Amino acid sequence: MRGSEILINVLRDEGVDVVFGYPGGAMLPLYDDLRSSDVRHVLVRHEQCAAHMADGFARVLKRPGVCMATSGAGATNLVTGIATAFLDSSPVIALTGQVPTGNIGNDAFQEADIFSLMIPITKHNFRIMNPANLSNDLRSAFSIAASGRYGPVQVDLPRDILTCDISSPIEPRKVSTNGMREDITELPQAIQLLESAERPLILVGGGAMWSGCGQDVITLAEMIASPVATTLMGKSTVPENHPLVLGMVGMHGRRVANYALEECDALLAVGTRFSDRMIGDPSSCRTRVIHIDIDTGELGKNVRPTVALSGDAGLVIRAISSSIHARRNDGKWTERMGILKKECACNLDLGDNPIKPQKVIYELSRLLPDDAIVTTEVGQCQMFAAHFFECRGKRQFITPGGLGTMGFGLPAAIGAKVAAPQRSVVDVAGDGSLLMVCQELATAVEEDIPVFVCLLNNGRLGMIKQLQNMFYGGRMTAMDLGSSPDFVKLAEAFGVRAARVKDPKDLESVIEEGMASDRPFLADIWIDREEEVLPVTLRTESGTQVIAGNCAWKGVC
Amino acid sequence: MEVISMIVNDEFGVMQRVMGEFTRKKINVETIVVGKCEIVGKARIVLSVKERRQAEQAVERLERLQDVVQVEIVDETRHEGYALVANSFGKARLIGSLEEVGGLIDTTKPDRFIKTVNAL
């Protein structure tokens, strides 16, 4: 059997029915065999987006998404997408073409040392130099990507490995490789700490999202009457309309959630790495921390935990729930958090003209179905969505939290829609990010993937403008994008349906049209150019500073 | 001086992965010895860094690597000094405790030398 046939057989056996890719000379043997297989190939318009699509796909189904690119420039174009998946622990498999084994190292046509380039941004990678290793290494790639802490794995495929005849049988499916080390010996201390806490807080991050343990978290929270906050990556793990759920913490988080983080006397951190955008200066975290993570390397990396438990988030949470007795609880803490949560719920049904971005997010929260998937680009659009969008029911929020990759949202939405064709998928985009990847509108049209791009268009790099305004004395530079392009015409040129919205009264009908559309749809919403994402919370060692601006917070703290 | 010992797959690219983790954590490797070991297809790396915290950070990261089979911080009692020294009279090999080897180099002041730490 040819190497490429073996590869496709392994893909089929691993349950892969779709790959996102872009061909090139070194990969043509594989494409030749892909033609006659039943694996769907989504032809992207730029390789970076193939990686983002596989990432979006993986985040919805919580199993590996596969992207492929040819040797040299094709493979280097994957780098941004793979780095994004790495920082957000997403199981993406990247198959890259490579020049024939005999030419490697000779600066052959379309040769890049992609193996070295991928090392720091993958969980592991392979370069197949011996045909006998092909099926075994491919199997390992899948089991490494989706075991322990998930992460991307790259497999470099020299052209001659794809074409040579391989007689060795296909390896059986691997269960798991070196996986994680589970260690919950400190469980009694964790339980004692939670039971004695007067003001507990459960903080869920991306690890809880990947584990899919939202319901377990809610069960525990109700048992011990603990409020729950999320990180950016943990958003949508727990339903935000639940009375105990306070929303997102962090620099752009909700004030109620940040106050809870500040005031709690026991913090149960579930699958979060205490990133700088979340915790600020780690020394500002002075509370007692119980840290659960599947990756032991995260325990104590940024914040020193009082108690550390390693293992799958859901598994550990269930272990806590099954042994814990009710907390000593006079009800004051949850009552106070309940009041603060109400005070944090400001009116977003704003009739201003030009349209306020908060109003757009408000309408999306109101109109999207309870199983909608929202992806975001990066910048103000992302933070407006993260702060104001209400993830209730089975809604999923997909955002490039770690790498902050502009141009992620549209391809991730396409990948998500391929994974879940029956669900509404909306990309909350900004004009800067969207223009980086707008060529993928062609992919959406040609492959018949009806995603809805909800463009918050302010003709500028809003987050840059906001940062320059706040921290650079208002000296604006390199942030004005002007009025080019006309996004409605751009969308229509790609064959995408489009509508422009300048009046808040039209939002409802356009959003409903976008959701109902059986073709890709773009709503070009002209928003207030001056609006900033507020409040901004800065946590430093010496204390917490809140830039409130027009944040309508009424509470006293 | 802290010494880390590990067993790794004996393949191309493994050193790059291992050293990459030190680069990421801004840790300078003071000395390094790599070679074949008692397990077929594996190699042993023994390297040293200045501080305990650096060694711990490195081990946390090295444990995540698929090509690292086993990694540990080696107890001080197992550290061995090893040096090649040369001057106008010729070459010599110095083996002993870190203090002994260091002391010999300090007193004899060879023209050229290389000093490393090994451990089992």
Summary, kept brief:
Chain A has 557 residues and is an alpha/beta fold. Chain A is built from 22 helices and 20 strands. Chain A folds into 3 domains: 3-163, 3-Layer(aba) Sandwich (Rossmann fold); 187-344, TPP-binding domain (Rossmann fold, 3-Layer(aba) Sandwich), CATH 3.40.50.1220; 357-526, 3-Layer(aba) Sandwich (Rossmann fold), CATH 3.40.50.970.
Structure description:
The complex is a heterodimer of chains A (557) and B (120). With 557 residues, chain A is an alpha/beta fold. Chain A folds into 3 domains: 3-163, Thiamin diphosphate (ThDP)-binding fold, Pyr/PP domains (Rossmann fold), CATH 3.40.50.970; 187-344, Rossmann fold; 357-526, Thiamin diphosphate (ThDP)-binding fold, Pyr/PP domains (Rossmann fold, 3-Layer(aba) Sandwich), CATH 3.40.50.970. Chain A has 22 helices and 20 strands. A 6-stranded parallel sheet of chain A has the order 2-1-3-4-6-5, with helices on both faces. Chain A is globular, with a radius of gyration of 24 Å. With 120 residues, chain B is an alpha+beta fold. Chain B folds into 2 domains: 2-74, ACT domain (Alpha-Beta Plaits, 2-Layer Sandwich); 78-119. Chain B contains 3 helices and 7 strands, in the order βαββαβββαβ. Chain B has helices at residues 14-24, 52-62, 98-108, and strands at 2-9, 31-36, 42-49, 68-74, 79-87, 90-96, 112-119. In chain B, a hairpin with a 2-residue loop joins strand 5 (79-87) and strand 6. The longest helix of chain B is centred in the N-terminal third of the chain and has 11 residues, at 14-24. The two termini of chain B are 16 Å apart.
